[in-house]
Amino acid sequence: MIAFADIQDAADRLQGQLLDTPCIESRTLSQITGAQVFLKFENLQYTASFKERGACNKLVQLTLAEQQSGVIAMSAGNHAQGLAYHAQRLGIRAVIVMPRFTPGVKIERTRGFGAEVVLYGDSLEEARSHALELAQNQGLVFVHPYDDAAIVAGQGTVGLEMMRAVPELDTLVIAIGGGGLIAGIATAAKAIKPDIDIVGVQTSRFPSMVNAVKGTQHPQGSSTIADGIAVGIPGVLPMAIIKSLVSDLVLVDEGDIEQAMVMLLEIEKTLVEGAGAAGLAALLKFPERFAGKKVGLVLCGGNIDPLLLASIIERGMVRAGRLARIIIRVRDVPGALAKITTIVANAGANIDEVHHQRAFTLLAAQNVEIELVIQTRGKEHIQLVLQALGAAGFDASEQG
């Protein structure tokens, strides 16, 4: 266990070395969720993640001999970048072992901070085994991303700042991977306000901490959009703190996280990765659990592959009814498509894609299926477009 004094000491060490990020209310998200929502923008850190807090706190406490030897870590990305950046600042060699399928943007940014990147294994656990082997062979100091007192104390400074900025917070909803962030925050927040309600969030694809703490047997998946919290084995130190200080743990699904990411981008104009949206995903999935509460959320990271982001935005538009696919079945005669596009335009929708399907259809040979992907104002607007097409005699329907 770590003490509140450890977090206060970490805050003193980190003073001036990283951002005291904003913690402000989102009026729009408050209206949507029914809770008063305050966002802690850790995605504004230089490495776009809270992880550099723990990394910096660990590095500045190394002995001179340890600094000269260098450090090594296993990480899916954010711990890697935080450690690499502050190691570079302090003139310390850093080696990072990453799973082979880590997003390219995280690999390149880690290398950009001067670290030596080794790609090994398909999971954090495999990367960890290799990192420990390299540490022994090369005399490097192993820096665990979450199962380390100095790391947990550094992450706890997030909670210290949140309680100082918004003392009236009565609930904190925090993402859990290995548990370092929530363990540190819980230690700080409970010391300042003992009756505060702290809720942990995991993705249903990686429910390791939920299973360990609650004794459940939720199956574990192999991938998640929230790769930053895709941890198969929870930290021993964080787990002890969570059992003592965290009041509840909940699971959210991939769709919940995607929806939260798109909402933060559209409403708050802020980019978060999957793990960074987990807290908001919990509010959206369990609104009755947080109704009327003053809730603090940590946008814990903003590192995401641009292609994945584009896919998530597009899927979010489909989910919201802003992008729809409709099928129109018509006689294959000149002018039919022109008439259809005119009707769609007059209904106020914009056409993204058009595809004629003649071969792969059960319609009579002289007929055709026309597939349109259209931009709309929402689900009600889709129905207006379909009604306009129906009124003109076309057989039109929306496709999932």
Can you put this structure into words, describing what you see?
With 400 residues, the chain is an alpha/beta fold. It folds into three domains: 215 residues, Rossmann fold, CATH 3.40.50.1100; 90 residues, Rossmann fold; 79 residues, Alpha-Beta Plaits. 45% of the residues lie in helices and 19% in strands. Helix 3 packs across helix 8, helix 8 crosses helix 9 and helix 12 packs across helix 15. The longest helix has 17 residues. It is elongated and about 80 Å long.
Question: What's the layout of helices and strands?
Answer:
Blueprint: H1 4-14, E1 23-25, H2 27-33, E2 36-40, H3 51-59, H4 64-69, E3 71-74, H5 78-90, E4 94-98, H6 104-112, E5 116-119, H7 124-138, E6 141-142, H8 149-165, E7 171-175, H9 180-192, E8 197-203, H10 208-214, H11 236-245, E9 248-252, H12 254-267, H13 278-285, H14 287-290, E10 294-298, H15 306-319, E11 323-331, H16 336-346, E12 350-357, E13 367-375, H17 379-391, E14 395-399
Parallel strand pairs: 2-10, 3-4, 3-6, 4-5, 7-8, 7-10, 8-9
Antiparallel strand pairs: 1-2, 11-13, 11-14, 12-13
Helix pairs in contact: 1-8, 3-5, 3-8, 5-6, 8-9, 9-11, 12-13, 12-15
In short:
By secondary structure, the protein is α/β, with parallel strands linked by helices.
